[in-house]
Amino acid sequence: MSTENLDISRRKLLGTVGAAGATGLALGAAGGAAAYAAGSQPAGTALASVGSTAVPFRGTHQAGILQPLQARGHLVAFDLAPGAGRKEAVALMRRWSAVAERLMAGEPAGPGDTGVALDAGPSSLTVTFGFGASFFDRTGLVARRPAELDPLPAFSSDRLDAGRSNGDLWVQIGADDALVAFHALRAVQKEAGAAARVRWQMNGFNRSPGATARPMTARNLMGQVDGSRNPKPSEPDFQKRIFVAAGGDQPWMTGGSYAVVRRIRMLLDDWEKLPPERQERVIGRRKSDGAPLTGGGETSELDLDRTGPDGKPVVPADAHARISAPEQNGGAAMLRRPFSFHDGIGADGTPDAGLLFIAWQADPRRGFVPVQRKLDRGDALSPFIRHEASGLFAVPGGPGAGEYVGQRLLEA
Amino acid sequence: MSTENLDISRRKLLGTVGAAGATGLALGAAGGAAAYAAGSQPAGTALASVGSTAVPFRGTHQAGILQPLQARGHLVAFDLAPGAGRKEAVALMRRWSAVAERLMAGEPAGPGDTGVALDAGPSSLTVTFGFGASFFDRTGLVARRPAELDPLPAFSSDRLDAGRSNGDLWVQIGADDALVAFHALRAVQKEAGAAARVRWQMNGFNRSPGATARPMTARNLMGQVDGSRNPKPSEPDFQKRIFVAAGGDQPWMTGGSYAVVRRIRMLLDDWEKLPPERQERVIGRRKSDGAPLTGGGETSELDLDRTGPDGKPVVPADAHARISAPEQNGGAAMLRRPFSFHDGIGADGTPDAGLLFIAWQADPRRGFVPVQRKLDRGDALSPFIRHEASGLFAVPGGPGAGEYVGQRLLEA
């Protein structure tokens, strides 16, 4: 693909977004409906390929929250280096923002680019930046630390590895091509320079574009459709539940969101021993299509009051879908946008696989925390999963023209 | 996608193969030229999607050798369980063949299928089986062990981990969808039952279909085009170099091939410090398009005699492409069909990433071994790579109607 074609594609895409008066979401939808033809391809169809879909770096929200699930993802947390403070953080966020913008446009990272993404377009690449609670201590910005970043409570099912949890800075990278994602990861690591060092790093994946004709609700490694009750942008209170509204205590977070990140190991050897009917009762949904056990399709509401011939509820009292249902949690809502992970065989001989759970919300105290508290008490799924790592990050709004990510925090 | 559509697709595909009088290769080509449209899709285009491309299980050669690179791969080696011998191996190969055939057709693995591949088609899934040298001891078949399976010589740059090397049995799984590949891996593990246990397991990836409009010569994580000199099926001696001809010492290997598997760690922190011009001189090819430094395009021959204004060879004496060139190795040829790997950050803080090198040949003593011996002595690339694991497996020909893989070995 020539740079010129790419530039044209980007302008078209940006035009689409502008016309929709929207954020990256409209773009993502355009990308999702794209057609792809391998091999030689008339130049005019370049826009439509998996590779040439570009997501804009600038906007009300950062990219990587509202876009469709991507085939490949990397999560990486950094700690500021000893001695580094606010000044180094400013320079780092400037460098990271500049490289993210170039990469998301399908351009090289800079001189000496590794070349790993050559041949491919941006492939829906997104690079998303967040700040952990410790970042505010390190940079002398404690007064600007949002109460939403207070540590998550401990849950009885937590088996957290501190070395793979939290961190001063968090970067989420997603793309529909694994080499494009890896290229971005290396570029982000390189730009960290002496200012920050990697604390932990995780890899994940989702279905490839085109592997299914179904709309892409994720299926997880337990074989369950996962995300059916995700709030939808068309719902009237979507914005205020997922993104921080203007006029709050921390103006720099306007348009931002809080990401709860959990490495949830699935105990697949145990899970797969359950017959599918038992699995469906654990979840409360059909395995085939994600429909509630009370019938309908994937998007039908669960009929939580319905009882079967035996007088018991059709959706069992401890079913995961019942306990986590928004109706059962005062409307608590979070936008889950996960990656599956599979890191081979664990030290105990079982698959080191599961879900890199990433949930977005305007306030984790009214999103992840109440739902997880409830799941922690009585979820039938608990014996089959283990939370192994945890992070909570403040992800500021998207950068405006000429801004870098986090500028409103660091330079206010 | 309905099962019916899939069946029709398969028949069409099988028809294509029959017409070409060929093996999976024709199929792969058909798949590669397919067009993909996400979202709602007229039934007639199902054949053309990334998901619905099926590779036949039966044929002259096993699948997974001649097919185009797949976006996701798993390599897994098993050792027969203590006490298991030929009888258990026969039953295992029957079970594995049956499940591989079902999965490659996009069908469930069997009752109690995990459901992880639901919604997706077969997505070019291939499952390939091989036997390590130790398999013949375990099954009392030493007389049928090919001389080609003699242990590979030690190389000075080897840093091999025995626990991640060799094994009685080897399975290569590839697919264009990560969940389809994972689903197959779990099914293969489950069918191993009490007969065999996992010795090692590795995950890899290649570019996603549609991420590039270029023909899919792989680009590796060093950013180099990798595989330009791969022998092509159109070359007159391709078959005899890659596949075992009829009439050899071990008739059960007719149509088979030997796989050399090396986990090659790339020392990316060191490599990426080299300026791109230096990298190009290490390789002997341009980074942008893989063309030789003596000019032309990716498929042009290297002009090994050409000297520059300084009187030195344009392709340096120790350049990787010179040392590994078939002309420099008595025509030694192997078909390299790798996956990249990235397992996060290694214990030493550097990226645990590189190449799952998989090379196919009729005889490793006239393929991998002489080339690697030569590279071992003077390859400019050596300081930047480390061979961390090694395997050599006899991969029998594809199963005929009613046969299981390896039947001609186990029941002759």
Automatic annotation (TrEMBL), chains A, B:
GO CC, any one term: cytosol
Cross-referenced Pfam families: Dyp_perox_C, Dyp_perox_N
Sequence ranges assigned to domain Dyp-type peroxidase N-terminal in this UniProt record: 62-206
GO terms assigned for molecular function: ferrochelatase activity; heme binding; metal ion binding; peroxidase activity
GO biological process assignments: iron import into cell
EC number of the protein: 1.11.1.-
Cofactors named for this entry: heme b
Record text on cofactor binding: Binds 1 heme b (iron(II)-protoporphyrin IX) group non-covalently per subunit.
Disordered: annotated span: 279-308
Annotated Dyp-type peroxidase C-terminal domain residues: 217-398
Coiled-coil annotated spans: none
Catalytic activity line of the entry: heme b + 2 H(+) = protoporphyrin IX + Fe(2+)
Keyword terms: Heme, Iron, Lyase, Metal-binding, Oxidoreductase, Peroxidase, Signal
Compartments in which it is found: Cell envelope
Biased composition (Basic and acidic residues): 279-289
Domain of life: Bacteria
Keyword Lyase: yes
Family: Belongs to the DyP-type peroxidase family.
Record's function text: Involved in the recovery of exogenous heme iron. Extracts iron from heme while preserving the protoporphyrin ring intact.
Protein name: Deferrochelatase
Organism: Streptomyces lavendofoliae
